[in-house]
Each structure stands twice: as structure tokens, then as C-alpha cells.
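JOB MANIFEST
job_type = single_chain_structure
chain_count = 1
residues = 346
[input]
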Amino acid sequence: MRTNESFAVLARTTAIVFDKTGTLTKGFPIMEGCHNFEFATDDHVLAMAASAEEKCEHPIARAIIEAAHRKGLQLETPRESHALPGEGVIATLAQGPDILVGNTSLMERMGVYFPAKQTIMRIEAESDGKSLVWVARRSSHLLEPLGMIAFRDECKSGAAAVLRRLRMQQGVEIWIVSGDHERAVKFTSRYLPVPHTNVFGGATPDAKAELVDRLRLEGHIVAFVGDGDNDSLALRRANVGIALGSGALGARTAADITLVTADLEALPDLFALARSFEDQLRVNSAASISFYILLLPVAAAGLLTPMMAMLVMLATMGMLFASHHKPFQIQPVTTQPIDRKPYHEA
């Protein structure tokens, strides 16, 4: 925890924004398919993507590289590599052209054209909850698509229980934001107790921060929970930023509070402890003020001797010390397998 003020802000939080990948999901994407277009083979597409992603630490980048290694593919070391947070990477291979690896927004921004067949494949995959990575290469002055790689990343087993407890016991509103396409994000969120109106996909790092800013302008006290470098800006913009212990260095540096592990189970306890502590402070302050007000007439009548005043002060300090050190009762989270029935907002 960076400052004591962060703990106090937790007690007043009214909205929590969660990053999806690696925060609510396991963060270990599983490659479910590599589809080449007419210019390349599946293995060539995977090898090009893995070579371009060699220096990247994003979970999907590591999954691409591991899949290429399992197939025994030969990779090239890129001469240059430029990461585009929230979108992908552009790399120049040692013995080849520029390679683009990234999401749909990157390809659209760079002017990559996808025929109708590939667009239909994309919509079907995203509607099934898969995250897509596109691979393209520069040919002369044009960028031609080579293929796409599909991934699936499951929710953490305790994620639904944690979000449900935060909503019911702490009374906060929950939001989910991700760089994945909105169709894929909404598919994943079907198993989480979050209304679809509070789920946003296709978000760049700036868009995540803008969501935090908008909620703050609406009067919310906002906590942002994330684990990636592309969450750093939103973590800094929130009233209180919370990073997972397994997260990227950029996220942990930007956050006000860093959890010890990648598990979310401690999160409701953290909020409950902050609110209990804040409530106890209010009770103690009220009790102290009331106690001294009651003694004012006694002192005014000259009935309060210095010895009695000292004993009263010691008694008050003793009560405050005892109340501050009493154990807070925190209800543990019961981790259960995910209920695969879609959640429907009541």
C-alpha cells in the first residue's frame, strides 16, 4: 500500500472497474486455432506471429510463442519491435518484411483489408467468446493479411463469487473493460454478475482511463483493478488503483495498492476491512467527544481534580486502544466452480 489515504478511499468506493484479461480471467490463454489465408500456411502464420511477439510480455504473446515452440517452429529475432499498448506489436524481422500482430482495431487503423469470408470468421469466433489476433505483413506499400489466431481464456473459479460479494455486501457497482472485441468480452461476462450495460470491449489504454474519468465525473469514487502495463493509465486515474501481485511491473508501479497474489479472493476482505476500520474510527471519535462533553459540567463545578482528569484521559485512551485492536470479523469467500449457466440481471 502506497499511502494510508488509499485505505481510507477504499471505504468510500462506490464503483469498481475490472480489467478482464488476467484479472477476472486466468490470464493463460489457450490457442484454439490458427487459420491461414491464401498467402501462407498455418505454421507460417504462427511462426511469423511468434517471431514478432518475441520481446512482448502480454499473456497472449507468451501463448503464441509457447504454441510455436510446441510445434518446433523456427523463429526469427526481430531487428526492431514496437509494442502498441492495447493493440499489438509491429516488428521488422531480420530476414523478412514488417509484421503486424494485433487486434481488429490495430488492423483497421493500419488499413488492412479483410475479405468478407475473413470478416464472417471473425464475427463467429468473437461471438463464441474467443479473442482474436490478426497477423499481417507489409508487401511493397500494402499490408496483406496472413491469418488469424484464436484464443480462449476462462474466468477464474472464484471470480463470480468475489464480484457477487462486492455488490451485495459492499454495495458497489461493477464494471468490466477489456481490449478484446466487445462480442468476446460480453460472452465471457455472461457468467459473471455484471449487467451487460457495464461491460465494454475494444478499449485502448486511453479508453479505459476515460471510463474511469467519466465515472468520477458522475460522482463515483472509483477503484480500478488490473494487472497489465496497458492498465497503468487507468490505475493512476482512479481514486484508488489496485494491481494483482502477478501483474506487470508497470501496473504494480502505477497502483496505490498491490495484492500479494493473482487471486481475487482477498479483494472483498480488503474493502470490508477498510469499511470496518472507517466505521470504528467514527464510533471512537463520537464516543470521545461525547465523553468529554459530559465531563464539562463536572469540571465547571470544580469537581474534577487533576488526578481524576488524568484517570479519565487514561480510561479514554484505553477504550480507544482496545477498540482499535479488536479483531474484525471477515467472512471468507467460498471458492466454487463457475456456474456455466449465463447470469441474468434481475
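[summary]
DSSP finds twelve helices and twelve strands in the chain.
The CA atoms of residues 225 and 237 lie 12 Å apart.
exit_status = 0
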